[in-house]
Amino acid sequence: MSITFEAHGPAVVADVQGRLDSTNAAAVEAELFKQLGSSAFVLDFTRLDYISSAGLRVVLVVAKRLKQSGNKFILAGLQPHIKDVFEISGFLGILDVADSRADALTRL
Fold it and tell me: Class of 2-106 per CATH?
């Protein structure tokens, strides 16, 4: 698991690579929370291979924190098998999802 962060104007893009599961969810959440000061946040899952329920919780906690502070959150680049997990869990209906990082950045 690795996360890199890039600033794009007022937005921060977090590029998450690898697996997001119970073994690293707390560390990932802590890393993401360090970056939540911007007015917009894109979580790019283009290179995410796997997400567990612990990973889904991280996404929801980050989205909730950003919403409470009036900031924008977009989930981008879901691979088909990852998108299936979000769809089955019902999260696609409550999260703003973009097909790609570029699409997410144009929507900010």
Answer: alpha beta
